[in-house]
Amino acid sequence: MKVKFLLAFVLSLAFCSSVFSNVYTVTKVNGNTWGTGDPGSLIRAISDADGNPGRDTIRFAVPSNEVNYTGWSINVTKNNIFFDGISTLNSQSVKLNFTLSVSAKKIDFYGVRFHKTAGHALILTGGNNSVDSCFFTNTGNGKNSLWINGGEGSEVTNSVFTGSPVQGHAISVENGGKHTIDNCTTTGIKDVAIIVRGTGDNVISNCSTSAGKHNGIGLIAPNNIVENCVSFDNDWAGIVCDNWNGGCNGNIVRNNQVYGNNKDLGALNPEQGAIASNGPGTEIYGNVVYNNGGHGILINKGNNQPCDNQIVRDNIVGTNSNGDELGNGWNGIFVWEANNVTVQGNTVVNNGYGDSHNGATDLQTDPSFMPESISGIRFQEVTSGTIHQNYVGTDVSKTEAGNAFDGITLHTNVTGVTVTENISCYNGFKAHTKYGDQGGGGLAIRSGSGNNVVISSNFIGVHEDLTDGGNKDYGISAEGATNLLIGGNTSADGNVIGYTKNVRDASTNHHGCGIWLVLGATTNSEVYNNEIIDNGGPGVLIDQDAKNNIVGASGKGNTLLRNEYGIMVTSSGAIENTLRYNSFSCNTSGGISLQNGGNEEYGGADIPKTITVNKEATGDFITG
Question: What is the pLDDT of residue 556?
Fold first, then answer.
């Protein structure tokens, strides 16, 4: 009895499949009149499928491989239809020359060629639809090739989008979310090629966006993922998370290749980075970013919206996957007015080369860009953050690939930032000559930065095996920095700073120092437990009115080996600097030199300055 029942059930399924799964074939180019259309027309096929409750298939056997319609759009309102766009006559893709609007669900397109003049080509407002192996062109000013304007869970895969001078987006997700865009290619799109608004939670993967007049991929919604994509040769950015109006948070940008973008640097700030984000909680990791005209990666505030708590890690910025040293025009990684950003584990090399970083006129008076605009990593106007375990100007193989000016720059009131365990080598040799022949260095703190800034456990101008990776003019430069800590309370906190290449020469503004404390605003900074070796100039240079700084303390002295001088204090305003418990050896011109009124309190104009040498069993310590 059970066997008979099972057999009857199977036969009933076969019967239902035969009744409810129909194939409707389109044979006419035209005939899409009002109502149900002519027999053989696409409108008639859609109408017939609408009257059938099962899943249906619409196929095409049109000799010209084209279907036309003179109205605004043909609408699909019945769920569960498969559009097979490969002609049964010649196996070619069939072209639809009108707008197709889908409010239904589970509508699947395969192999269709969508084209629309002065309008959107395909509109999806229902959910769980799919577009696979289709082709899109349209010429509507501000119109989209594919407009997803509602629903959830639609998929766009293996499709090609070709732009025109008056087109909008290739793919625009306007409303809804949880959509997938995979393995699609866009070329020459006028507006942002793939743009995502709506409720978010979309995935864009394995896509290529190139040669567009705007950004390659733009996110204006939360919790999206952009992964394994290639975005190149776009006039503006490659990938952007745009929080200008709020709501663009928690996005992930990972494992993409982004190169040759930012050809038009007149764009607004968010578009001046090849990967750019002003959305809070963005994670940018595993990307390869090179040969872009602007910044490699830009994190900055837009329209006073929050942009904090972002992570930039494990990216290669300035070279491609083959190791070709191509750089980016401006900073490798630039964090501006974004707090609690972590920059960790990146390789940042060769940035700041080419004409792009010099401004449109390439004149020294051009106010657009400064020498600090071409660092490997730059933090500006932030109150917290971490720069940790990055290779800057080199890589794990000790490649000589310095950034044009500074390896790392903290600029304009940066506070509360920790710079630890980085390797910064070979920087400062290729800045434009308008910035001076002296070049840059490993790490610079400028313009009121320093409060609660800690610089510890870094190798600057020195590789981990203590071999030469020298920067050009200084290892660390503190220019107008207050309350800065270089090193720390234990030997593990100390930095190794060495092999700076310039020879000190005041007439040419060359310094060649390991640590440079300079300008009257550089006060109350502390330098402990550092190993400062083999620099062309002084190990520590205190210069131009820097005052009230401490170099060394009991149990926290610095080791100064094989420099020009161990410590030099020069200029009459450089006073009340405390130098103690430091160890000196083989410095070619001496241990401590007080010149031109430096630390004048240790001697007047007619009184020779004095240096006290305390000889102890543990070695020679010099205080003065």
Answer: 96
Residues belonging to the chain: 624
**Cα 63 → chain centroid:** 49
Q: What is the pLDDT of residues 93-143, one digit of tens each?
A: 999 999 999 999 999 999 999 999 888 999 999 999 999 999 998 777 888
Name the maximum alpha-carbon separation found in the chain.
123
- Answer for the pair 488, 530: CB distance below 8 angstroms, yes or no: no
201: its two tokens:
């939670």
Torsion of CA 559, 564, 566, 571, to 10 degrees: -150
Q: Rounded distance, CA 473 to CA 502, Å?
A: 5
pLDDT at 353 over 80: no
Six-digit token pair at 418? 């920790």
Instruction: Give the chain's radius of gyration (CA, Å).
Output: 32
pLDDT at 602: 59
Q: What residues form DSSP beta bridges with 517? A: 478, 542
Token reading at 446 = 């400028």
Structure tokens, 266:
């007149």
CB atoms within 10 A of CB 219: 31
CA distance 511 to 472: 9
Where do we find the tokens 């559009």? 83
Q: pLDDT tens digits, residue range 534-564?
A: 999 999 999 999 999 999 999 999 999 999 9
Tokens of 345: 């584990």
Q: Identify the three-state secondary structure at position 321.
A: coil
Measured distance CA(438)–CA(428) in Å, rounded: 8
pTM, entire model: 0.92
Q: What percent of the chain has pLDDT over 70?
A: 88
- The count of C-alpha atoms lying within 13 angstroms of the C-alpha of 539, restricted to the half-sphere facing its C-beta, is 33
In degrees, rounded to 5, the angle at the alpha carbon of residue 517 between the alpha carbons of residues 511 and 518 is 80
